Amino acid sequence: EAGKSSNVKVVVRVRPLNAMESSGNHRNVVRPMDERVVVFDPRDDFDADSFIPNLRFIFDRVFDETATNQDIFHHTTKTIIDGVLNGYNCTVFAYGATGAGKTHTMLGNDKMPGVMFLTVMDLFKRIEEMKHEKTCEVAVSYLE
């Protein structure tokens, strides 16, 4: 429901086509309408009898092809660090098909660090800032 808050947030990142896809005249079958809605628009020869065109799906946040890992971090995991520092557990879960961009988003590279790196850096920066107020213990699990 619109405007209702939840402990679980679902965000979508639409990645740009890669070089092979672009050269092969492929196209994205999902496109962001705004910051919350994605439209599913399959190829033209899709079986129209079993499909409703331009299906819309609503999420807590939608990132288009121009979004950076920094953008994803600022609008997702950066906002949960206060809760972590107050003793709450949190989980960040990336899901998608092979080649969807999960590894790029979560791990990144030297030029564009991923959400995991950015989160850990911000978390430890915040811990350092409050070291005279409280003692923190951090435990992290990573599963692929």
TrEMBL record:
<dbReference type="GO" id="GO:0008017">
    <property type="term" value="F:microtubule binding"/>
</dbReference>
<dbReference type="GO" id="GO:0005856">
    <property type="term" value="C:cytoskeleton"/>
</dbReference>
<keyword id="KW-0067">ATP-binding</keyword>
<comment type="similarity">
    <text>Belongs to the TRAFAC class myosin-kinesin ATPase superfamily. Kinesin family.</text>
</comment>
<dbReference type="Pfam" id="PF00225">
    <property type="entry name" value="Kinesin"/>
</dbReference>
<dbReference type="InterPro" id="IPR036961">
    <property type="entry name" value="Kinesin_motor_dom_sf"/>
</dbReference>
<dbReference type="InterPro" id="IPR027417">
    <property type="entry name" value="P-loop_NTPase"/>
</dbReference>
<dbReference type="GO" id="GO:0007018">
    <property type="term" value="P:microtubule-based movement"/>
</dbReference>
<keyword id="KW-0963">Cytoplasm</keyword>
<keyword id="KW-0547">Nucleotide-binding</keyword>
<dbReference type="InterPro" id="IPR027640">
    <property type="entry name" value="Kinesin-like_fam"/>
</dbReference>
<dbReference type="GO" id="GO:0005524">
    <property type="term" value="F:ATP binding"/>
</dbReference>
<dbReference type="GO" id="GO:0003777">
    <property type="term" value="F:microtubule motor activity"/>
</dbReference>
<protein>
    <submittedName>
        <fullName>Kinesin KIF18A</fullName>
    </submittedName>
</protein>
<keyword id="KW-0206">Cytoskeleton</keyword>
<feature type="binding site">
    <location>
        <begin position="96"/>
        <end position="103"/>
    </location>
    <ligand>
        <name>ATP</name>
    </ligand>
</feature>
<dbReference type="InterPro" id="IPR001752">
    <property type="entry name" value="Kinesin_motor_dom"/>
</dbReference>
<keyword id="KW-0505">Motor protein</keyword>
